[in-house]
């Protein structure tokens, strides 16, 4: 037995058959409840099916219907718009909050709790609280904006604003994750890097620009990717805040999938849109991975 | 075999394979009992839901010692059809449901139980029902002369008017307008503006969803538009009337400035005095009365050539069970509910389809006061024109929907993102396709 | 003056930092205002809610909203369901994740790379994409509206595996080797040595998975057909104005009481165990 230590370092390690027992408890539910439904979705996207009776093969008709559908088109446009508002919002605010808390000034742990806690509450909370805050006549936001001389903004009821109303709530909800990830990365930056530039008499801004930011680049790229993916799949906020309206102004792809499937029982069409969304997420992920790798080299 | 046994057996089966069930506390496994428990699904969750729950409770109280009870589950409107379909596909449909949709597809697929024989055995007096309500519960294309639904309530959409706003504007509620022009005058008198902005709607609207769609549907029909011709051959008959009605709705917002798109929740907004005239259904009465809102209901004005309003019929329907012996017990329960629907049709929802209930001397005095309830009952006389269509894709034509094909097409018009002409063309094409499926 | 300079010095602050410091605190306080407003509204009389003036502290305090949500709605039942579902699924998910994470980090077996790739790849497909096909499958096997349908799909949460894999990769080999010399198999090593030492990732994974499961929304919404089977977030969602019908007349006071009840468990868990929470999120997500 004692030889095994040497063997493992020098030779190819032996197969641990017991490993399959170890992974079974996770992998079996994973295959049944994650992988199988994904395959089923792919299958359904070529079928016409309303639950009752057998599915009927229709070729690519579902994809054609999806492309021709005004609301699906609007939804794909909207998730890009959401990406353009929510992702920079989360990234910038998360970075600022992390830099602030990282100073370890008095009460910084209070600030940390404040910045992170929205992340742990459920979509239902976000929906209800923000619908109330963004109410045009009686909402807190418009009430204080009025002091600044703004007119009442119909945050959730106008086609111009609805998407931004949902975005504001989403930024508030999602920022916590970016914040803690960046904060953790800040704490990992070795102190002697700063000492080196300190000797050169660098200003605080220079320290940030020449040391902190380059060191944070990997975590920022990662947060960007994570947030982008989670924004492309925005659903719960839309569902509880605006039901996608008015006139699909704040709808998202997943919300359209939900409507098509659950309200109209067009499961084939819903599956086809799902596959299209998956393709978009895949492309975005691969692109951002590539960008990330290029930056590192 | 009772319903509960089935569920339990399903659960036990999985327990064997997953050894997980041991972790479930036993009280949460539905226990089988000797008594018949009839499972009922209903989407009623507004203030009328409380009255319906009372109806079910009354049934259970009356059948305490008879070994039968009803268990009610409230299922969201949005998911109702999908969940019934899904449950039926899995062989676990509820015994009966309350719903307003005509169900040709359900009849075609054998989901609904044909009722003629069961009705006869239960002793329910079909002759007591209005002919119109019975004819709407048969689907000759798919189910011959069989009855598939038992009508429970008939509902019209009429204006509720905030009487405090009326007197504030110096108007007299007895002089309630009967034509479109006067209606707009009233609305203007009651609207409150801040600069150019409507902050209290003379006519309660929303920028999207059900309210503008149903308004369009009613006004269009009044102006002579037909979604489907009576012979079911043609869609969008008299499209110019339909377009004129779209313009009428847009004018409320932009020309007359009596409505704002800026309303999130129309029910809450009317309840808090942010609107003066609100056409809606009787399901709101119970709640507004409890809230002590000063309001009455009035007949729908004649905006077009003829007076018409939206009609909806609530009905009980039986879903096919694995064990057909459950059907008769369920039908007997449905009969009891129908026979005892006086409470439902005076306090809960709408008018009764049954002559014996309408003719009761206390029909007008019981339940909600007549000045808030009467217009809904009388509205039935002219609400018959816009009932739902008994075709497979009937849902695409429904004017009371926030998310169907019609509502989604019109939504773009209300938001100014589609022209009226384009929307009408889209409707014609989409509806034609929908109609072709039968 | 000296007090101030000493204070600044002890916290590594320059005088110019003070405005930034105060501004940051103000922003942090502003950031949790929605919670304060939510709690404040939940203690108001319904008539005092939609008013032109803002009342940060209710002029008149009432507990009636809380009484109402617990008596008029099945909040107790929903809470109970949530607790059963979340405890069971979190336990299974963490246990399964620990085992799989250990195997991926420490054991050699054919297909390991492919399996890890599959796990990571699956992170790209959100559950919302396949929720509806999954629902159909669940219904077909007769599991709609059951606890197992609420619990089992959350077991395969890759997050849990990633946290444990990360931890066990850095796990000192010596301990393991010593046990192997004594003839212990991997099963024994895992139970007796690895798992007891994995306290930090264990707590981290538990906390995170608990919060994720507690907030689960779409799946419970789809798979529960009866009021009695709803979980708390789904039940409370009936108070949302557009989707639900319950608030149409009651207004926001009761809804705010509902969401306050809903937020308490996850916020409490976070506050008590925030150190682990943040550690776990970092180690799990960095590999994602």
SSE layout and pairings?
The complex is a heterotrimer of chains A (297), B (438) and C (288).
Chain A: H1 3-10, H2 19-44, E1 47-48, E2 56-57, H3 61-68, H4 70-102, H5 108-116, H6 123-133, H7 140-147, H8 162-188, H9 191-199, H10 204-232, H11 236-241, H12 253-263, H13 267-296
Antiparallel strand pairs in A: 1-2
Chain B: H1 3-18, E1 36-42, H2 47-62, E2 68-74, H3 77-89, E3 96-99, H4 104-108, H5 116-122, H6 131-135, H7 140-143, E4 149-156, E5 158-162, H8 163-168, H9 180-190, E6 192-194, E7 197-203, H10 210-222, E8 226-228, E9 235-237, H11 239-254, H12 266-271, E10 275-280, H13 285-290, E11 295-297, E12 311-318, H14 325-339, H15 342-348, H16 355-358, H17 370-383, H18 405-414, H19 420-436
Parallel strand pairs in B: 1-2, 1-3, 7-10
Antiparallel strand pairs in B: 3-12, 4-12, 5-10, 5-11, 6-7, 8-9
Chain C: H1 2-10, H2 17-31, H3 33-42, H4 64-72, H5 75-106, H6 112-122, H7 127-140, H8 147-151, H9 158-169, H10 173-181, H11 186-197, H12 199-215, H13 218-223, H14 232-236, H15 247-250, H16 252-272, H17 274-286
Helix pairs in contact in C: 3-16, 4-16, 5-9, 5-12, 9-12, 9-17, 10-11, 12-17
Descriptive notes:
- The complex is a heterotrimer of chains A (297), B (438) and C (288).
- Chain A is mainly alpha-helical and 297 residues long.
- Helix content of chain A is 72%, strand content 1%.
- Chain A folds into 2 domains: 36-68 and 265-297, no CATH class; 79-262, MetI-like fold (Orthogonal Bundle), CATH 1.10.3720.
- Chain A contains 13 helices and 2 strands, in the order H-H-E-E-H-H-H-H-H-H-H-H-H-H-H.
- The longest helix of chain A is centred in the N-terminal third of the chain and has 33 residues, at 70-102.
- Chain B has 2 domains: 36-156 and 312-371, D-Maltodextrin-Binding Protein, domain 2 (3-Layer(aba) Sandwich); 167-308 and 403-436, D-Maltodextrin-Binding Protein, domain 2 (3-Layer(aba) Sandwich).
- Helices cover 44% and strands 15% of the residues of chain B.
- The longest helix of chain C has 32 residues, at 75-106.
- At the A-C interface, helix 2, helix 5, helix 6, helix 8 and helix 10 of A face helix 2, helix 3, helix 5, helix 6 and helix 7 of C.
């Amino acid at each position: 037995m004692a030889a095994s230590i040497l063997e493992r370092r020098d030779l190819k390690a032996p197969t641990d058959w017991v490993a399959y027992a170890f992974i079974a408890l996770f992998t079996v539910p994973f295959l049944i409840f994650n992988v199988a439904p994904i395959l089923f979705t792919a299958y359904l996207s070529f079928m016409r099916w309303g639950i009752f009776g057998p599915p009927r093969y229709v070729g690519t008709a579902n994809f054609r219907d999806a492309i021709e559908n005004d609301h699906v088109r609007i939804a794909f446009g909207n998730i890009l718009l959401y990406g353009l508002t929510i992702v920079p919002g989360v990234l910038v605010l998360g970075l600022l909050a992390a830099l602030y808390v990282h100073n370890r000034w008095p009460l910084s742990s209070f600030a940390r709790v404040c910045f992170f806690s929205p992340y742990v509450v459920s979509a239902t909370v976000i929906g209800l609280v923000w619908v109330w805050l963004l109410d045009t006549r009686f909402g807190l936001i418009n009430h204080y904006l009025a002091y600044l001389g703004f007119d009442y903004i119909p945050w959730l009821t106008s086609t111009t604003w609805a998407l931004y109303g949902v975005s504001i709530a989403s930024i508030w909800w999602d920022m916590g994750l970016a914040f803690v990830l960046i904060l953790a990365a800040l704490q990992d930056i070795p102190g002697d890097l700063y000492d080196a530039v300190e000797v050169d008499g660098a200003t605080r801004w220079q320290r940030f620009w020449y040391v902190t930011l380059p060191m944070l680049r990997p975590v920022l790229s990662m947060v960007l990717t994570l947030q982008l993916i989670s924004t492309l799949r925005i659903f719960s906020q839309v569902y509880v805040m605006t039901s996608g309206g008015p006139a699909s102004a704040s709808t998202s792809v997943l919300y359209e999938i939900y409507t098509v499937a659950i309200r109209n029982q067009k499961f084939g069409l819903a599956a086809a849109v799902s596959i299209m969304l998956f393709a978009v997420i895949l492309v975005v992920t691969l692109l951002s991975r590539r960008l990330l790798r290029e930056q590192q080299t | 075999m009772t319903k509960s046994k089935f569920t339990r057996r399903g659960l036990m089966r999985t327990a064997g394979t997953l050894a997980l069930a041991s972790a479930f506390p036993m009280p949460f496994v539905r226990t089988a009992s000797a008594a018949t428990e009839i499972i009922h699904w209903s989407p009623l969750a507004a203030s009328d839901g409380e009255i319906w729950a009372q109806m079910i409770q009354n049934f259970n109280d009356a059948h305490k010692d008879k070994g039968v009870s009803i268990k009610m589950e409230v299922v969201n409107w949005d998911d109702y059809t999908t969940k019934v379909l899904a449950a039926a596909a899995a062989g676990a449909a509820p015994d009966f449901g309350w719903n307003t949709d005509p169900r040709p597809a359900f009849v075609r697929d054998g989901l609904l139980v044909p009722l003629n024989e069961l009705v006869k055995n239960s002793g329910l007096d079909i002759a007591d029902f209005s002919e119109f309500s019975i004819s709407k519960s048969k689907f000759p294309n798919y189910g011959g002369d069989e009855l598939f639904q038992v009508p429970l309530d008939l509902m019209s959409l009429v204006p509720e008017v905030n009487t405090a706003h009326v007197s504030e504007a110096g108007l007299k509620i007895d002089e309630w307008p009967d034509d479109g022009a006067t209606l707009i005058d009233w609305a203007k008198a009651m609207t409150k503006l801040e600069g150019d902005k409507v902050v209290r709607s003379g006519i309660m609207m929303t920028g999207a969803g059900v309210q503008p769609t149903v308004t369009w549907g009613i006004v269009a029909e009044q102006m002579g538009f037909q979604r489907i011709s009576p012979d079911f051959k043609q869609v969008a008959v008299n499209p110019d009337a339909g377009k004129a009605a779209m313009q009428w709705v847009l004018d409320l917002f932009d020309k007359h400035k009596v409505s704002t798109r800026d309303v999130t929740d129309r029910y809450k907004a009317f309840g808090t005095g942010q609107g003066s005239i609100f056409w809606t259904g009787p399901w709101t009465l119970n709640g507004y009365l409890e809230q002590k809102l000063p309001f009455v209901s009035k007949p729908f004005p004649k905006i077009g050539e003829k007076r018409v309003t939206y009609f909806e019929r609530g009905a009980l329907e039986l879903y096919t069970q694995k064990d057909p012996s459950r059907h008769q017990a369920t039908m007997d329960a449905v009969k009891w509910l129908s026979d005892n629907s006086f409470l439902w049709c005076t306090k809960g929802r709408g008018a009764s389809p049954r002559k014996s209930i309408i003719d009761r001397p206390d029909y007008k005095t019981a339940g909600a006061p007549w000045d808030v309830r009467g217009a809904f009952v009388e509205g039935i006389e002219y609400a018959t024109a816009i009932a739902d269509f008994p075709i497979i894709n009937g849902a695409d034509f429904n004017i009371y929907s926030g998310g169907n094909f019609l509502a989604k097409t019109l939504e773009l018009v209300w938001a100014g993102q589609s022209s009226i002409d384009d929307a009408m063309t889209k409707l014609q094409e989409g509806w034609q396709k929908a109609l072709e499926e039968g | 003056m000296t007090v101030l300079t000493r204070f600044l010095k002890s916290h590594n602050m320059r005088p110019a930092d003070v405005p930034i410091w105060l501004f940051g605190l103000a922003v942090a306080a502003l950031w949790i205002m929605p919670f304060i407003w939510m709690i404040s509204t939940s203690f108001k009389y319904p008539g005092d809610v939609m008013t032109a003036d803002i009342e940060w502290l209710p002029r008149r305090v009432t507990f009636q909203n809380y009484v109402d949500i617990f008596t008029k709605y099945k909040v107790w039942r929903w809470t109970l369901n949530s607790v059963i579902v979340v405890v069971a699924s979190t336990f299974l998910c963490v246990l399964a994740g620990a085992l799989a994470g250990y195997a991926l980090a420490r054991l050699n077996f054919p297909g390991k790379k492919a399996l890890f790739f599959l796990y990571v790849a699956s992170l790209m497909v959100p559950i919302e994409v396949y929720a509806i096909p999954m629902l159909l499958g669940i219904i077909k096997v007769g599991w709609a509206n059951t606890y197992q349908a609420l619990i089992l799909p959350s077991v395969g949460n890759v997050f849990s595996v990633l946290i444990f894999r990360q931890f066990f990769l850095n796990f000192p080999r010596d301990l393991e080797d010593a046990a192997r010399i004594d003839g212990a198999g991997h099963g024994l090593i895992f139970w007796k040595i690895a798992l007891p030492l994995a306290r930090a990732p264990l707590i981290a994974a538990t906390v995170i998975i608990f919060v994720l499961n507690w907030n689960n929304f779409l799946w419970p919404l789809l798979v529960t057909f009866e009021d009695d089977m709803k979980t708390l977030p789904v039940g409370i969602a009936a108070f949302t104005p557009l989707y639900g019908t319950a608030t149409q007349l009651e207004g926001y006071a009761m809804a705010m009481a509902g969401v306050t009840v809903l937020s308490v468990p996850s916020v409490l868990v976070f506050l008590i165990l925030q150190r682990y929470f943040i550690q776990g999120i970092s180690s799990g997500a960095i590999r994602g």
